[in-house]
C-alpha cells in the first residue's frame, strides 16, 4: 500500500469483524430466499393464473382480479370485520402488556414473580385448536361453565349467547385474544423497564413521589420510545389478521361478524383454487399496511417521538 493511502473503512471493519459479518450473512440469505424471492409471485394478482401454465404461461389481465374481488359483498364484510376486530384488539389488548410489565416489575417476591411470569407466558404457547376447545367448554350457550355459573347464582335470567350473537362473539373474541397475547407482550416492556436507571427512581423517591407517581413520571416516560415503536407496528398490522383465531372461534351463525380477510381468502381463493384472486387480496393488504405504518411513523415524528425509521 502506498504511503498516505488508507484502506476503505468497510474493508477495515470487514477485516476486524468478519465473524460478525459471517453470522449476519445467515439471516440475510434466509430473508433473501424465503421473503424477497417469493415476492416475484405478486404478478399472479394481475394474471388469469393457471397452475398448469404457471406464471410465465398465464394470461395477463391487469386489474380484473382486483375489480372482481372488490365488487364482492363478502369482501366488504370481511374488510370491515378485519378493521373492527383489529381496532378492538388494539384498544383493549395493547395497554395490557404495559400494565402487566409494570405490575411484575413492582413485585418484590422473586418466586411469586417467576411463577406469575410463567403463568402469563403459558397461553402464548397453546395452539388455537386447544384454545378453541377451551372456549367452547367455557362460553358455550347451554353447557358452558360461565353460563352455568351465572344461572346458578341468579345473575342472569337466561343463557348469554357468547358464541351465537355477533356482539357477544366480538366480546369473546377480544377477551380470549387479550388473555392469549398479553403475557408474551410483557417480555419487551419488562426488559425496557429493567434497563431504566435506578437513580431516577431514587431521586423521585427523595422528592417525595409515591409508587404511582414514580410509575407515571419515571417508568412510563422511560419506556415511551418502546411503546411508540410497538404501537406503530401494531397499526401497520391493522389490515392483516391471523387465520386460526377467527376461523376456530367463529361459526356459521355469526358469519357476518367473524368472516375476516384471512378466512375470505381461504374460502374464496384457496378452496376454489382462485390463486390470482387470493394474491390480489394479499397485495391489497400489504399496500394498505405499508400506508398505515408510514402514516403512523410520520405522525410519531411530528410529536418528536422516535419512529421505526
Write the layout of secondary structure elements.
Layout: H1 9-16, H2 18-36, E1 47-48, H3 54-57, E2 59-60, H4 64-70, H5 73-93, H6 95-106, H7 110-121, H8 128-139, H9 145-152, H10 166-194, H11 198-206, H12 211-222, H13 224-236, H14 244-249, H15 255-258, H16 261-270, H17 275-302
Antiparallel strand pairs: 1-2
What is shown here, in short?
The protein is mainly alpha-helical and 309 residues long. The chain contains 17 helices and 2 strands. It has one domain: MetI-like fold.
Question: Explain this structure to me?
Answer:
By secondary structure, the chain is mainly α. The protein has a single domain (69-302), classed as MetI-like fold (Orthogonal Bundle). It contains 17 helices and two strands. The protein has a two-stranded antiparallel sheet with strand order 1-2. The radius of gyration is 25 Å and the shape is flat. The two termini are 39 Å apart.
Amino acid at each position: 500500500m502506498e504511503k498516505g493511502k488508507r484502506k476503505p473503512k468497510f474493508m477495515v471493519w470487514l477485516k476486524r469483524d468478519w465473524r460478525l459479518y459471517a453470522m449476519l450473512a445467515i439471516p440475510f440469505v434466509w430473508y433473501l430466499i424465503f421473503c424477497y424471492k417469493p415476492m416475484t409471485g405478486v404478478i399472479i394478482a394481475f394474471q388469469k393464473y393457471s397452475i398448469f401454465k404457471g406464471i410465465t404461461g398465464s394470461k395477463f389481465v391487469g386489474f380484473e382480479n382486483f375489480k372482481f374481488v372488490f365488487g364482492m359483498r363478502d369482501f366488504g364484510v370481511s374488510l370491515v370485520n378485519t378493521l373492527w376486530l383489529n381496532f378492538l384488539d388494539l384498544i383493549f389488548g395493547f395497554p395490557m402488556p404495559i400494565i402487566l410489565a409494570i405490575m411484575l416489575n413492582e413485585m418484590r417476591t422473586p418466586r411469586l414473580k417467576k411463577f406469575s411470569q410463567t403463568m402469563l407466558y403459558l397461553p402464548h404457547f397453546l395452539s388455537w385448536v386447544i384454545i378453541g376447545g377451551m372456549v367452547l367448554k367455557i362460553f358455550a350457550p347451554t353447557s358452558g361453565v360461565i353460563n352455568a355459573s351465572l344461572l346458578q347464582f341468579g345473575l342472569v335470567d337466561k343463557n348469554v349467547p357468547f358464541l351465537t350473537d355477533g356482539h357477544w362473539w366480538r366480546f369473546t373474541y377480544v377477551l380470549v385474544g387479550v388473555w392469549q397475547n398479553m403475557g408474551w407482550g410483557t417480555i419487551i416492556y419488562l426488559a425496557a423497564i429493567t434497563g431504566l436507571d435506578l437513580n431516577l427512581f431514587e431521586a423521585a423517591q427523595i422528592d417525595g413521589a409515591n409508587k404511582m407517581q414514580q410509575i407515571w413520571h419515571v417508568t412510563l416516560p422511560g419506556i415511551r420510545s418502546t411503546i411508540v415503536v410497538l404501537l406503530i407496528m401494531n397499526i401497520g398490522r391493522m389490515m392483516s389478521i391471523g387465520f386460526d383465531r377467527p376461523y376456530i372461534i367463529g361459526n356459521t351463525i355469526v358469519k357476518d361478524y367473524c368472516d375476516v380477510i384471512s378466512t375470505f381468502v381461504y374460502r374464496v381463493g384457496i378452496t376454489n383454487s382462485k390463486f390470482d384472486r387470493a394474491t390480489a387480496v394479499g397485495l391489497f393488504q400489504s399496500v394498505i399496511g405499508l400506508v398505515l405504518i408510514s402514516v403512523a411513523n410520520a405522525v410519531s415524528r411530528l410529536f418528536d417521538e422516535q419512529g421505526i425509521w
